[in-house]
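Weekly modeling sync, notes
Attendees: AB, CL, MP (scribe)

Item 1: holo prediction request
CL wants a bound-state model with protoporphyrin IX containing FE before deciding which constructs to order. AB pointed out that an apo prediction alone won't tell us much about the pocket. Agreed to run with the ligand included and paste results into these notes for async review.

Input as submitted:
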Amino acid sequence: MILKTIGRILGLLLIAVLIAVIYNAIQERRYRAHMPLAEVISPGEDAAMADAIAMALRMINRTRDGLTEDGVEGLSTPAGDGKTTTPPIEEGPVVYRRDVHIKTHGCVKARFTVPELEGRYRWGVFREPGSFDAWIRYSNGDYVLHPDKTRDARGMAVKLMGVEGEKLLGWQRDAKTQDFVMMNSPNYFIRHLDDYVELTKYLAVQDNFGYFLNGWSWNPFTWRWRELRLVMGTKKPPPETPLMTQYFSASAYALGPDQYIKFSARPAQCRDPQGEPVDTRDGGWATPKSDYNFLRLRMGEQLAAGPACFDFMVQTQVLGKPMPVEDATIVWREKDSPFVPVAHIEIPAQTFDTAEQNRYCEDLSFNPWHSLADHRPVGVFNRVRKALYEEVHKYRWASNQQQYGDGDAVTLAPGQPAEPDSWCIDGREGDCAP
Ligand code: HEM
């Protein structure tokens, strides 16, 4: 009798869930039929943005409390598990981390080379053929530290150096950098700004599902099914190394005054100056995936053995196709507009995992708005990111007594803040900062 009743309740619940999923799918079709493709700025954004910043700072403080209680190394490297590992931060009072993407795998030096391009791509840093030195930070996406084998989004944030021209952030108008911020999913999981603020209210108390289940409601019609499906999609199993997965901007950007794009970095064959393929390490790792920091350690193995490369690509918006700029949850289909390589990234063989460089890396700030107007970020979440990344960075910078400038490294280098050209890539000649 009891079993029958439980069976009936479960059956009813299942039917309710199915109806809720179908209902959501119909709503989605209606939405897509009328969604705008151009930029649309809503009046309530400023207020929601203030809430988003307040919640982000709360999340940082929450992480800080954890790090302070357990000790910086205590959280990043579980004591006594017998696994070899390098703590991400080996020294200094760095307890105010980013509010998301808090776990760093490493900051590496790279070279970003732009070939001669077709006219429509020749804007901003792609205008002329040439090369930029760059810093790239690899990270896990989560707002807590966890073992690298945990499903998560992974981040790749690129900072080009020596980029001339006025930048979009007022206080960094003269900075000589250009950032490109990516993760290894082609879409974000939230559509509306209010939803983001709602989500962070739950995350700030470390409740991962409260937002999706509408405050743990019993009514599946109020659950956020689409967002739940999309967030599960961004939580991917770990790649073999941070250099062996494709990264995407997910949100849209301008490329020049009258076209929109998304961008992506895809692992590519490294070549020598004669164009011959160069041997790169892609297996036989000494570090097992069970190691707490295996992504950092394997990236070290990979770059000790040789270089790693990416193609940096853009996908241009085609009007009339489902390619909105306001809604970063919608993947622009490659059959409507393929990604086209516009630059090649080479990460030369190097040692990056030193205490000094790790500390420098933590101080760096990557922000889509560290940018030339030709690469202006667009869409509601990019607008929010402008104030949010800036506030988060200023807060952790001030709180951590950071050592290296304002975090938008123009001429500073690990261990040698006074040397203007000290961030040159080892072994290269003639391509250093002025
Ligand atoms: C839509 C696509 C997005 C991508 C590809 C992305 C990617 C990233 C990456 C890679 C980082 C780490 C940057 C670093 O290495 O310093 C980062 C940091 C961060 N992200 Fe995002 N993100 C996205 C959207 C968002 C949104 C919508 C928000 C909030 C509204 C957000 C909030 C943040 C914050 C606060 C940080 C920390 C910034 C810092 O401390 O310097 N992100 N994001």
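Recorded for review: The pocket of protoporphyrin IX containing FE is lined by residues 52, 56, 98-101, 137, 139, 155, 157, 181-183, 188, 196, 249-251, 328, 365-366, 381, 384-385, 388-389, 392-393 (CB under 6 Å).
Action items: CL to compare against the apo run; MP to circulate these notes.
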